[in-house]
C-alpha cells in the first residue's frame, strides 16, 4: 500500500480518470460496505476503472465499482458489481446535483483509501476531455519530463 500525500493509505486508484476527464473538484466520501468487501479492498482487490457515480433520490450511489469476493467470505460475499451508497452531507449532495444537471459534468471515483481505519473514496466532479485535450496533456507531460531531465543533467 502506498502512502498518499495526506498520509492516507491508497487502496485503489482510477488511473484513467485524469487522462479521460478534467477534474474540477474532489470530495471525500464515506462508502457503505459489508465486512467481506472491506477485507477484499484492504487486500487490494478493488477496481475503479469503469466506475461512475450518480445522484438518485437525494442520495449518491457508485456503479460498476468491482470488488472481488473475499476468498474466506463464503455466504457473506455480495455481488462484485452491486451499487454502493456514498456518504455525503446534504449540502454536498445538492452541490453535486447542481453540477451533474449541467451538460458535460459527471461524477468519477478517483481513489479508495484508508483514513483512521475507515475506507474513504475521493469523488471527482469531472468534465470529459476531447482527443486534442488528451494530446495536449501528453505533450505537456513530455515537455516537463524533458525539462526535469535537462535540469538534472545541468546540475550534476
UniProtKB/TrEMBL annotation:
PROSITE patterns: SSRP (PS01317). Its main location: cytoplasm. Keywords: Cytoplasm, RNA-binding. InterPro entries: SmpB, SsrA-bd_prot, SsrA-bd_prot_CS. It is found in: Cytoplasm. SUPFAM superfamilies: Small protein B (SmpB). The keyword Cytoplasm applies. Transmembrane segments: none annotated. Pfam families: SmpB (PF01668). Belongs to the SmpB family. Required for rescue of stalled ribosomes mediated by trans-translation. Binds to transfer-messenger RNA (tmRNA), required for stable association of tmRNA with ribosomes. tmRNA and SmpB together mimic tRNA shape, replacing the anticodon stem-loop with SmpB. tmRNA is encoded by the ssrA gene; the 2 termini fold to resemble tRNA(Ala) and it encodes a 'tag peptide', a short internal open reading frame. During trans-translation Ala-aminoacylated tmRNA acts like a tRNA, entering the A-site of stalled ribosomes, displacing the stalled mRNA. This is SsrA-binding protein. It comes from Clostridium brassicae.
Amino acid at each position: 500500500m502506498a502512502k498518499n500525500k495526506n498520509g492516507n493509505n491508497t487502496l485503489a486508484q482510477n488511473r484513467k480518470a485524469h487522462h479521460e476527464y478534467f477534474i474540477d473538484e474532489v470530495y471525500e466520501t464515506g462508502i457503505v460496505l459489508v465486512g467481506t468487501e472491506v477485507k477484499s479492498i484492504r487486500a487490494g482487490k478493488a477496481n475503479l476503472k469503469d466506475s461512475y457515480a450518480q445522484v438518485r433520490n437525494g442520495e449518491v450511489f457508485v456503479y460498476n465499482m468491482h470488488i472481488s469476493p473475499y476468498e474466506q467470505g463464503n455466504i457473506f460475499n455480495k455481488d462484485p458489481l452491486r451499487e454502493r451508497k456514498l456518504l455525503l452531507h446534504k449540502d454536498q449532495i445538492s452541490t453535486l446535483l447542481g453540477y451533474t444537471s449541467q451538460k458535460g459534468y459527471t461524477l468519477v471515483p478517483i481513489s479508495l483509501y484508508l483514513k483512521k481505519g475507515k475506507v474513504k473514496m475521493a469523488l471527482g466532479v469531472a468534465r470529459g476531455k476531447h482527443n486534442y485535450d488528451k494530446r495536449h496533456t501528453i505533450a505537456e507531460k513530455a515537455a516537463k519530463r524533458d525539462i526535469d531531465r535537462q535540469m538534472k543533467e545541468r546540475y550534476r
